[in-house]
Write a structure and sequence with these properties.
Number of domains: 1
Number of helices: 14
Largest sheet: 3 strands, mixed
Structural class: mainly alpha
Helix content: 40-55%
Shape: globular
Length: 299
Amino acid sequence: MSKFFVNEDEKRRILNLHECAKKNVKTIEEQIAPLDPMIQQKIDYIKSPIYKQRLVAYGVKDPDSVIQDRVKRLQATTFKTTQNGQALTSDGGMDKPKITLNTTDSRYVKAHEIGHVTGGDDTRYTVNNPHKAKGNQMSPAEAWKFYNRNKNLAKTVPGIKNPQTGKVNPGTTSYRDNVYDYQQIDKSNMSPDPASELYGAKNILDVTKGKIDPHEIGSAENKGDLDAIRQLLHDNKITQNYGDNITPEQWKKALANPKIAREPHVVRMRNNFDDNSICDLNNIIAIRNPYTVDNGTIA
């Protein structure tokens, strides 16, 4: 007969089941209130192999610790509804995020706000490594992936006039990792999100020339929009699981649905990024610049 070994935690769980059955009371597991379904979905995603693979490929240090911190924050998240004001995510202290939603907000607004729980941009936090992430924040390198692909910040090369036809060829857009060059930044005082500056200390307002709200360029907002898109793709069965990789064909199929194409988070994301960049940000990024190879990911 083979032996069956049970660890101490499992022994205690089994004993608890027997004791509760005798006393006709709920088990410890049953006494714990179930998590919000969208929070549980996000936790399942963060615990999935693909999430850790993205963190590791991205160069995030101590991925297991980051995953544990993010799960803990999600488990501690509470919700509040209001009839006035906009959706808001704030930290209630002691890593207990609070999400306030208007009674008219859609589930995609909710997905966006849940994205802030693990993808914030608290500029008060400084790090000395571009790949250092925190429970409620992306790493600086991850935040900069959004900026380096934002078409409102990209460097545009003007078109060249054809002397024979007199027509001007279309210009090209260059997405460069050194737009925000963290290699030349003082590592002892590095902000996780350079929302207020470009390399060379140019303010984002100067770069965009008032064309777009700086708030909408912030990487935390972009990440929240990406999480809303992930929810849309999952709800509409474009992806099997929340956060799955997508192909350009799947994204094109999604946009063929008017309800998806007109959804505010999709519209705003497309105002900042081209369709290929949106797919890249969701999956493993490969810059289409012949001088740069980037294997980063957005978790």
